[in-house]
Amino acid sequence: MNKFWIVMSHTYMTRFKTKSFLISTIITLLFVVGLANYQTIFDAFSDEGKSEIAVLDVTGEFFKPLEKTVENANEDVDLVAYDKSEETGKGAVEDEKIDALITIGMNENQLPEATYYANNIADSTEQTVIQQQLQQLKVAKATSQAGVDQETIKEIYSPVNFDAVALDKSAKSSEELSQARGIVYVMLFVLYLSVITYGNMIATDVATEKSSRVMELLVSSVSPVTQMFAKIIGIALLGLTQVGLLLGLGYALIVSKQDELTGGVFTEFGIQGASLLLFIYAIVFFVLGYLLYATLAAMLGSLVSRTEDVQQMIMPMIFLVMIAFFIAMYGLSAPDSSFVVISSYIPFFTPMLMFLRVGMLDIPFWEVALSLAILIGTIILLAVIGARVYKGGVLMYGKSSSLKDFKKAIALSKKE
């Protein structure tokens, strides 16, 4: 057991001190901070003050209502009446005395039309706001000409009342589905990225030690099985360190911005009001999913002697994760489809798909228990096979990255 802790701590500290880990962690933390304060950052880099746009309304009818609606839609756009000629206005724009000029006139149907003049029209934000509000004025004008009153117009444009009611008493409500969908979505991405990142890290770590011949010294003092699981746990702790820092920062940001987050993105992702059981399932499926793929990664990493061959060797594992992820993305809109249900019992897909079903549906506990039993059984089986492959694989050297080396690795393990 002492040797296990030595290898585990060595794996953890070696990776923890690498520049790549420190830089990636710092960048991720900065990204989270930036995401939480994106509006402040955006305002800091945006142009100061309002955009002053002159409006030459030759009809004398649309400036006042347009000014009011645009101000309500975007407070950073300031419309001012312009009483000089169009050419003079264009000159003022070119001389940067005003930001833009809009001319409003009537077409042959006595409906408004406009032209927008600016030195640069690449930024369409202001144009879009003004165009949308002018469109509303055009609709009001056209319907007025047709004898349609404003109340009828409001009724036409008001959204249709559409309620979704589940008749099955065990089915989840729309609110519960929205909460679950956000958590499931986050869990799928976290598991997907974790498996690819830390699985690759485990395989690379094994291959690096083999390429430097350190493995020969380790094998003589520590059993290969102890090495494999020590590395898996060591990398897992490294991942927990990184995730823990992110969660700690996230919690601090949530506490400091509670008022801003309530009713916004925070609520959109379903964190508020979600059941404790759903979080427990998320942790269980995440841990089991990590153990499954980490064991597979260590086994595959032991079959290569050069770090250059790692990516090729673990490609089947990455494909499995990608397939599970894409099925889960489909399952977000159809969690009860036969394809998703059957796939959720396939061990390599279970961590994502069964959690998806648990979050989106109210399924019997025996289904969850059965999937967990299959998943745990697969992890144990993979650990037994993986230990034998790892035991023989760490003794194999030379240019090799073929899955055919499984038999050779198992044969070597029997001789030991």
TrEMBL record:
Residues 19-387 form the ABC-2 type transporter transmembrane domain. GO terms for cellular component: plasma membrane. It is a multi-pass membrane protein. The chain crosses the membrane at residues 182-207, 228-254, 274-301, 313-332, 338-356, 368-390. One of its GO terms (molecular function) is ABC-type transporter activity. Its main location: membrane. Keywords: Cell membrane, Membrane, Transmembrane, Transmembrane helix. It is found in: Cell membrane. PANTHER family: MEMBRANE COMPONENT OF ABC TRANSPORTER YHHJ-RELATED, MULTIDRUG ABC TRANSPORTER PERMEASE YBHS-RELATED. This is ABC-2 type transporter transmembrane domain-containing protein.
